Amino acid sequence: MKMTKLIDLNYLKEIMDGKKELILGMIDTFLSQLPEELLGINNAVRKSEYSVIKKLAHTMISSVSIMGVSILVPVLKEMEELGSQALDMAKINELNLKLNFLSQQVIEEIKSERLNYL
Amino acid sequence: MNLFIVDDNEIMIKGLKLYLNNRFGKGINISTFLTGESCLEKVDQDTNFVILDYFLDGKNGNEILKSIKAINPKTEVVMLTSNEDIGTAIESFREGASDYLIKNDKAWNKIIPHVYRAITEPLRRMGKELGSLKFIALFLLVFILIGLIVYFV
Questions:
Q1: In total, how many domains does chain A have?
Q2: Considering just the CA atoms, what is the radius of gyration of chain B in Å?
Q3: Which residue in B7, B11, B18 is closest to A30 by CB distance?
């Protein structure tokens, strides 16, 4: 079964004027940063640190928006909102599982897309 | 021109720096900072322009904005943030921000006219100080001198 594509690099291509070396630089930074952010947010969820969850979710929204990963935005926004209200850790847990699941697919897609810019 | 980008997101910083360098080339010298405090250590009388996020580790963007203006009132500051609170935006303008841009797919384009105006500010100031007629006369004089030099050499 073919999975729906989660990433759309058109915005990135537009702001970088289609320049391959610039796009590649951004892709590499994202591939380096995303696992670190996931690690951070996973730790925060494990420790029930609402303020850290809120901060990291907020930061990740900017990152995924630039990279055209819009599917993660509503998940992160909800985590940010629940984090700011210090509410419903069970729901946050559920959202975090979804975030991690989708992020794995995003990473694989971006790695595949990256080959077009070498 | 010396331009600072202050944001706690490395992708945002890298992307914006690449974007501006691509458009302005060697016309601007860009420094990036992950915290407001590290930016304040470098702000001085030669800092022309700052693009500043609101949500930062440590002091928030408006507090940093106030400190930047205390160091150099002439530094132009544009807020670039996901904070859509109107009160925050009003406070930014009160503290001297030139603009308050919400992070979306149009935001980076909106920074360009601000940067362009900051780059051309010395020329416009020179024009005002000399007066436009004097500026034209000076330009013509230099043009004629160059022509004479080329002709006789």
A1: 1
A2: 19
A3: B11
- Residue-wise pLDDT for B83-134, tens only, equals 889 999 999 999 999 999 988 777 888 899 998 888 887 777 777 766 777 7
User: Which residue in B9, B10, B11 has the most chain A C-beta atoms within 10 A of its own C-beta, making it the best mutation to test that interface?
Assistant: B11
| Contact by Cβ (8 Å): B55, B12 | no
pLDDT, tens digit, for every residue of B9-29?
999 999 999 999 988 887 899
Model pLDDT for residues A25-53, shown as the tens digit of each residue: 999 999 999 999 999 999 999 999 999 99
3-state DSSP call for residue B77?
Answer: strand
How many CA atoms does the CB half-sphere of A112 hold within 13 Å?
A: 10
Asked, for residue A4, whether it belongs to a domain, the answer is no
Closest CB to B22 among A11, A19, A65:
A19
Q: Map out the domains of chain B with their CATH numbers.
A: 2-128 (3.40.50.2300)
Q: Is the C-alpha dihedral spanning B57, B91, B86, B3 positive or negative?
A: negative
Is the ipTM higher than 0.85? The answer is: no
Instruction: Give the residue on A whose Cα is nearest the Cα of B11.
Output: A63
Flag whether A94 is in a domain: yes
Question: Residue A104: CB partners within 8 Å, gap ≥ 6?
Answer: none
Please tell me which residue of chain A has the smallest CA distance to B9.
A59
Name the H helices within A47-72.
50-66
Amino acid letter, residue B14: K
